[in-house]
Amino acid sequence: MESNELRIFRIVAREGSITKAAQILGYVQSNVTARVQQLEAELHTQLFYRQRGMVLTPAGEKLLDYAERVVRLLDEAHQVLNDASEPTGRLKLGAHHTLSAIHLPMILAKYHKVYPNVELSLTTDYSDALAHKVRHFELDGAFVKSGFEDANIVQELVFEEQLVLISRPEKEDVQSVCNQPFLMNTIGCPHREQLEIWLKSIGIRSIRYLEFNHLDAIIQGVISGLGASFVPQSAIQKYEEKGLVRSFAVPAQYSSSKTYFIRHKDTLMTSALKEFTNMLQQNPLRSLPIQQYT
């Protein structure tokens, strides 16, 4: 049983598809199929049900747990043996859409300038998807919109700001704003959930949505008169100063937006990751102090 076979097995199990696994690995499909079959022959057991994709058998589920641990230990050994005092190598980070669009580029640019030998990569996704990648050691760390009650996750509050209701400037009161469709992310977005809780608290239960999954598109849609939205105040400040949008405050219990930096408790603290967390502490995204949670 070779480590490369276990890596291929993990990706096929994760994606549930030979085709997707081959695309990720950069292999031809027949090669991936052959390696999986070779592993099954060596272990004398079927690892996948091959109907409507690749679904793990009970034996496959058992092997996946070991494969995750073996591959992680091999990667960790490689990192330890190749880690230098001067940060080098890969640093795989994730961030939710809003942060990656507004606040993160500055800190990443500064980090790259100080540590040019670190190969930075950034994955933008929803918080739950990012947390899943952190739990499975696919990311060294990620910025997410909400904390997680998970003993395997270490999290730090790095950023907090207020959300505001926004609309075209001719809308003069909250009621007229709320009679419009709301331009928001898809279901599962914490901001959308906070908006719904607040609207219900003021007696509005029928909400129309236009779903956009990019902050800039949402703001431009509001400017164009498509409807209203509920976004970080920092994102619309320059537009409000130009008279393109108007913002309305929402009670604090509904409008606080927090961003946490999370990592797996067993993630190897390479010099690259250590210096990144140090830079976060020395250059907070806002003036709020970082608070440690475990």
Task: Throw out a few tags for this protein.
single chain, 294 residues, alpha/beta, Arc Repressor Mutant, subunit A, D-Maltodextrin-Binding Protein, domain 2, 3 domains, 8-stranded mixed beta sheet, two-stranded antiparallel sheet, 12 strands, globular, disordered C terminus, DNA-binding
Topology:
Layout: H1 3-15, H2 18-25, H3 29-43, E1 48-50, E2 54-56, H4 58-82, E3 89-95, H5 97-102, H6 104-114, E4 118-124, H7 127-135, E5 141-144, E6 153-167, H8 174-178, E7 182-184, H9 190-201, E8 209-211, H10 215-223, E9 229-232, H11 233-241, E10 246-248, H12 252-255, E11 256-264, H13 271-282, E12 291-293
Parallel strand pairs: 3-4, 3-5, 7-8
Antiparallel strand pairs: 1-2, 5-11, 6-9, 6-10, 6-11, 6-12
Helix pairs in contact: 1-2, 1-3, 1-4, 2-3
Written description of the protein model:
- This protein is α/β, with parallel strands linked by helices.
- It has helices at 3-15, 18-25, 29-43, 58-82, 97-102, 104-114, 127-135, 174-178, 190-201, 215-223, 233-241, 252-255, 271-282, and strands at 48-50, 54-56, 89-95, 118-124, 141-144, 153-167, 182-184, 209-211, 229-232, 246-248, 256-264, 291-293.
- The chain folds into 3 domains: 3-82, Orthogonal Bundle (Arc Repressor Mutant, subunit A), CATH 1.10.10.10; 89-160 and 258-293, D-Maltodextrin-Binding Protein, domain 2, CATH 3.40.190.10; 161-256, Periplasmic binding protein-like II (D-Maltodextrin-Binding Protein, domain 2), CATH 3.40.190.
- Helix content is 47%, strand content 22%.
- The strands form 3 sheets. Strands 3, 4, 5, 6, 9, 10, 11 and 12 form an 8-stranded mixed sheet that branches. The chain has a two-stranded antiparallel sheet with strand order 1-2.
- α9 (190-201) links the parallel β7 and β8.
- Mean pLDDT is 85; it is low at 287-294.
